[in-house]
Amino acid sequence: MITTVRIGLIAVFVALGLFFTFVSATGVIRLPDVFSRAHTASQADTLGAGFALAAVALTIGWGPTAVKTVLLLFFIFVTNPTAAHAIARAAYEEGVEPWTKGDERR
């Protein structure tokens, strides 16, 4: 019973990771400016990597490798949004104009 639940959770986490990674990739391709792209990349990609690493940690089980996986998950949760913020701030400081509703699609 426990093994079945564990395998089910692993499958759900992998599916959610793939979904959020796909949403992130689609957003980066389809959105019009660097600010929107940084937003979707930081949020959806962080969730995609988070769910995938959670699936890896569940697959490995308890041990030193699982602890390293959880630490990697924490590292991604901290650095990915920080990097997206730095990119958006650099674009703003360089004078990149954000896309608005009246602008033509680029």
From TrEMBL:
Could you tell me which InterPro entries the record lists for this protein?
A: PhaG_MnhG_YufB
UniProt keyword annotation of Lyase present: no
List the Pfam families hit by this protein, alphabetically.
Answer: PhaG_MnhG_YufB
Q: Which UniProt keywords apply?
A: Membrane, Transmembrane, Transmembrane helix
Instruction: Give GO terms: molecular function aspect only.
Output: sodium:proton antiporter activity
Q: Which residues cross the membrane?
A: 49-78
NCBIfam families linked:
CPA3_mnhG_phaG, PRK12674.1-2
Question: What is this protein's name?
Answer: Na+/H+ antiporter subunit G
**Source species:** Halonotius aquaticus
